[in-house]
Amino acid sequence: MSEPSPFINDTAPVSAVAPAPETSAGLTPAQPREAEPIDPSSLVGLDADAIRQTLGRPGFVRKESGARVWQYFALDCILDLFLYQDGAGEPFRTAYAELRSRLPGEPGRCPREGGFPAPGG
Predict the structure, then answer these.
(1) Domain 47-103: which CATH class?
(2) Is the pTM of this model over 0.70?
């Protein structure tokens, strides 16, 4: 006589099997949407901390006396931010933001919040 398998209980009545999860009629799974492009003018006036919270770390930083140039890189665009200090000890704030395409002759479309890959990644 063979011993029963410890993993399969093929003698259990059908009612002992867990029912399939119920689905709500009329609901469909959410479809992924294309990311809204970022509006560079929405970044003007934000300080460096707010920019980091919105976009993450920049991929490139150039420091000059009283100024910073930050660049963010996405698949088809480059976002340039120019930050300046109003005075010594004041936070750097975005005075100008420009969106450039990486593809000649096509407008660049940068994704909103969190769409920029981390440097080196």
Answers:
(1) mainly beta
(2) no
